[in-house]
């Protein structure tokens, strides 16, 4: 029997949550989480390095286990859930996508900075050719005006995307800004619209509900908020809230609560909360995955990680510019030395 779903949830703890464990997921962890998500009725489970396919590198952090091995292992234990992969053109290649599709990944999410959708044309085209459900993922959506977002989403639609997402990578969007963006996309596009939130300003749930009110039907969540920064919209809470609203997700509430408590919570290095640093991410509009890199640099150079993050926000740094974190830290140290002399 096919499950009626009003909203389709993509669980991202095994991809966005990879940032939380510095990309050290093991096969055993992935198998346990994916199996339980599948049994709970989650329709899509994303698995890749936190920065997408082929993200394992000095720049982004090396993975413990090759992501293709993780994808293969997850597919082997899922009966109904489809495995999704994330790919950032320039990090992942066409070949990486082909390998994931050959293993059985059914959905490809092609992620670009919100103003750079044109670099997704080839990858969206290839994903469609490979028979994958294809999503355009417009990151750092707070950093461009609504008209720009619409223009870029239309490009992704024209390349063949089945869905376009508003991605609040920095957890910086306020509810009225989510409303404007989702409603503009709903008016301009023929395809489905999605929303991916981060909880740095404690607004992930509110923003997700606004997105659904405006017609978004694809929603990302992470169990126990296991995602970069303060994490994403908490999946098990979202399932409960949507159930109260009479919106069907097809996900079993008790089962997703149990897996959150018994399987995911023990994997977290610390419970996900809004710390002063993750709050600054949302406040300054900085990519959530810069958190751990900035904390590391702050420790190394003996400065306040908030100062690094605020400066990165001023410079409007985008994903892929992780090397700027150390540059900024060095400049701050130099500036402080000049002031003190
Ligand atoms: C590569 C990023 O971590 C993608 C994402 O989840 C975001 O921009 O948010
Ligand atoms: Mn994210």
UniProtKB/TrEMBL annotation:
Superkingdom of origin organism: Bacteria
Positions of the catalytic residues: 19 (proton acceptor)
UniProt catalytic activity: (S)-4-hydroxy-2-oxohexanoate = propanal + pyruvate; (S)-4-hydroxy-2-oxopentanoate = acetaldehyde + pyruvate
Ranges for domain Pyruvate carboxyltransferase: 7-257
Binding site for substrate: 15-16, 169, 196, 287
InterPro entries: 2-IPM_HCS-like (IPR050073), 4OH_2_O-val_aldolase (IPR017629), Aldolase_TIM (IPR013785), DmpG_comm (IPR012425), DRE_TIM_HOA (IPR035685), PYR_CT (IPR000891)
Enzyme nomenclature, EC number: 4.1.3.39
Residues of the site described as Transition state stabilizer: 15
SUPFAM superfamilies: Aldolase (SSF51569), post-HMGL domain-like (SSF89000)
UniProt keyword annotation of Metal-binding present: yes
Keyword DNA damage set for record: no
Entry keywords, A to Z: Aromatic hydrocarbons catabolism, Lyase, Manganese, Metal-binding
GO MF assignments: 4-hydroxy-2-oxovalerate aldolase activity
Family of this protein: Belongs to the 4-hydroxy-2-oxovalerate aldolase family.
Protein name: 4-hydroxy-2-oxovalerate aldolase
Species assigned in the record: Aeribacillus alveayuensis
